Amino acid sequence: MPPPPIPGHCLTQVLVQTPAHSQMAGALSYWSPTPVQPGTLVRVPLGQRELLGVVWPSESPAAAEVALDPAKLRPITAALDALPPLNHRWRALISFAASYYQRTAGEVALAALPPQLRDMSSVQLARRLKKRAKAAATPARPPPSPTLDATSTPTPDAGPAAASVVLTAEQQQAIDQFHQQPGPFLLFGATGSGKTEVFMHCTAALLAASPEAQALVMVPEINLTPQLEARFKARFCARYGDDAVVSLHSGMTPAQRLNSWLAAHSGAARVVLGTRMAVFASMPHLQLIVVDEEHDPSYKSGEGARYSARDLAIYRARLEGAKVMLGSATPSLESWHHSRPAAEGGRYLRLEMPSRVGRGQLPLVRRVDMNHQPKSCIIAAPLLAAIAQRIARGEQSMVFLNRRGYAPVLQCSDCDWKSECPHCSAYRVFHKIDRTLRCHHCGLSERVPRACPACGNSDIMPLGRGTERLEEHLAELLTDIRRPDGQPVRIVRIDADTTRLKGTLESQLAQVHTGEVDVLVGTQMIAKGHDFRRITLVAAVNPDNALFSGDFRAPERLFSLLMQAAGRAGRDETVANQSEMWLQTFQPAHPLYEALKQHDYPAFAASQLKERQQAAMPPFSFQALVRAEARSQEAAQGFLNLASQAAASESDMAALLAQLMLYPAVPMSMARIANIERAQMLVESPSRTALQRFLSVWQAVLHHTRADPRCKGVIRWAIDVDPLNI
Ligand code: ADP
Ligand code: ZN
Ligand code: ZN
Q: Which ligand has the shortest distance to the CA of 566?
């Protein structure tokens, strides 16, 4: 090591947010007047800027670079040492995530910190911490009332009384196993079997056993489940104070996020409730990680480091010596496979809760064979009659369709014109409410033309239907039906269009909960997680599309969505009538619907896993995608193919390549968005290790290839390890 320029100064390695694909992949070196502990946040100069950084141990591989010319090294600007350093387990998580997902440690580390920290001087931070300390020192407020704030949805069961529920035998058994076994656990519980209750019990037990213990509870999308937040707050704030439960998700303001993060990092927060980003929260006394609805695709990040928070949760639990519990009524096939019996190689312990709490029955699944319905039929007559019957009884129905807008396409009745987006390989969707054509991919929005732009014909027609049209259609069909109080039917639509304004989703959900609404129409947004009490009929209007998708995960997603949707029905045992799930399908005998009718996830999973095994697909193989964006398809594909050839010609790659399949580059299923062409290349291997080793070498090859003059048109590329959409 070269001598310090100033005697007594120490060489310090610092991670900063290195732009993706920059040559500064590792930690940067600085001088510091005093030794700074690894994990300490610092401010450092870089070029003309001053950045937030994290001191990284010099022995780590990330730090081993930079030809050290002591004269060129600069001192750190300040150490934010009012904060305790990020501990070595957190750093190990960051290092692992960076290497597994093929990103730089600096990018992952800095993205894991609250954005507001990036712009704070040490003085501002110290001031903020002082304010927090002062607030904590003021006498505790009385325990919060069950209704937490104006925006939270009223919940029938969120009150303090919830702490005293008598557990079902299945719940008790799951909890006993949790205490006796090391895990990881997969809580496989029917919708309404009381999984949340189990999560809360396990959390409560660990928090009670140790005054410092912390729990991380992850949910797919917190905005869709305000109830869950309310339940946790009601349960744990009453005992441990208002600060004990904090949320961490992207819907919060930067100031709120920083506050939550500081509470977690200082140990003041005993429970952190968050979305996928929360997997990186600094929690010095982490003892439990819960991943609710673990099958949900939103646990996989779609940008930057494309990490899976569910997979990282498993890894992190091992690092921290914490327990981890995944939960779902329809587990991902990966997790299901991992939870096979230990004798067959399973690594997770499966905890089963097949029954619903109380007498709430799972709905009866009914298939309407659309082959026998009139051609332009949207809602089959028997389904309509069933909905009308519910309304007359004062019960609620939920009708869902996975397409928002009025119609997915406008078409000229004379010529071939369709409402294509000029910038994307997609049609623009007709939204009747403001008479616009909107591209859901690039955002282009225009007034609907008065006449066909191609031939001038004034007769342009909506083709197909989205939720907006379905709502309109239902209103027409149900005009003569009356509620028990003699009032006309009330229909509410919930989708990304109706919930754009902050607070509207909450108020719409509240309307459903209080029973003001008779029919709820929406996209998959309404199918997930909500504990609606009075819905006795759920209908999927047109679920068939996914049966014919090219994506091998489409059936898994469809099954889970329909099962979740069915799970919204019949949750209230005081409603005596058998609840129903209706499917309108042209494939009534399809095995997927057959399994759904039996509520038989294990049978469905077994048949899917068998197919996957025969085709050597995940979880029986490991995949990565490299995606490239360019001015033209040729450029995007050319770059990928060139990089693939370059890898093949590397002499030391032969052994690795023998364990891999490198497929040719193909256009992505959405080949063009906003005039940018997109292509992808799939890499597959039966060995995760071989795939990982290949990717780490191939990274450099891809960088190199990108600089080739033949790849001028390439805009960017990225590696997606364990991709969900192929
Ligand atoms: P899941 O998450 O499995 O869908 P929840 O935990 O939301 O199920 O439970 C469904 C409903 O049953 C909730 O209203 C919850 O308060 C209630 N519940 C859960 N466990 C019990 C129990 N042991 N006794 C009575 N009600 C319960
Ligand atoms: Zn025309
Ligand atoms: Zn577009």
A: 1
